[in-house]
Amino acid sequence: MSLYELERDGKAQELIRLLRETDNERVKTRAAELLGNFDDHDDRRDVVNALVDAAQSDSDAVTGAAIDSLDELGDDAITQLIGSMAGVDLEDDAADWVKAKAYMQVLDSDVPELRMAAANGLGNLDQADAVPKLTERFRDSDPRVRARAARSAGKIGDSRATTPLENVLTDPKAAVRREAADALGNIGNRQALQALLPLYEDDDERVRRIAVGAFGNFGNDRPVDYLIEALSDESAAVRRTAVYSLIELLSNVPTDQSHEIRDTVVEKLSNTDDRSVVVPLVEILEESTQAAQRRNTAWMLGRVTSQEERDRVIESLVDALGEDDQMLRQFAATSLAELGDDDNMVERRLLKIVQDDGVDPEIRGQAIFTLGKVGGERSRKTLDKLIDETEHDVIRKKAFSAISKLGGRG
């Protein structure tokens, strides 16, 4: 069985055996990583014991994976490691501040793996008093310690870590820069976000992706130009993240600014040859659970859709007409009108909705409104007939308005 299958089937003891007995470092490292997913397993105690042993006696890669898995298993697992390696006596019911004090002492250990464990553990305790001690480790000789200290500072989220983290953004190790960028994104104050802007062109793809992902947290249009640049990144993951951040940005800025920013984004996108933004936008519309994101996406799709993705966009926008969110329906309708209907695809899909008596009248009314923008003679005849046959005042009123734009009744 593969390691993945062992983890999937809950074979903790077999993974423990591999961690302890195999000579293959890659297998041992992966086994240590997967054991971090066994928090609720009956053999959890054995899992923790095996990871504690591996953290003290194995290669750097295995040790790091073991410590990270102990971190995933919870504070009690890290506490056991600290106690095993340093002899620090920590009771299970000790207060967080007591544990934090012991962990901060261990940060000065001569053993880098112990400093790693202490840094990881402090990130789970949410004790702001630990931040100054963590920032001292940003200059640690071991990049693994620097990375974990930066990660934990980001988890705690205290603004005192902002300037020290900003200095870590020039660390020679990409893994450390990634953790610092992620931490600054979690802190999210003005200084932290500003520090991330130049990283959209970092040499490391994951650093760029993390930085670009944080740009959506801005409350103004400062990162728009950087996000537009990121849409041309050589990495598909960075480009996709930039699209999500643009939509998130539009959802976060004040309403009186969002219209101007939307117009700016559309103008910038119209001047680039990179049309890979459309697929992620469709995914946001179809999958997001955030109303503001979906509304902004529906509006955007009508202005940036490339011809090769037009059919999929139309299907998604038409589906959005059936949503409960009235504003989303309105944005979807206006975008369908913006797309036009040279091939009559929009008209055909909308007529199906209009002619279905089982569809909510409000939704049918939205479809009728859109037909008034894009429909042709077939729509005019259908609406003409509908006016005489419908019993719904909303439908009749919408039909009268739409048919007047299509040449009037026959």
TrEMBL record:
UniProt KW NAD keyword: no
Keyword Lyase part of the UniProt annotation: yes
GO MF annotation list: lyase activity; oxidoreductase activity
Keywords: Lyase
Pfam families: HEAT_2 (PF13646)
Domain of life: Archaea
Protein name: Phycocyanobilin lyase
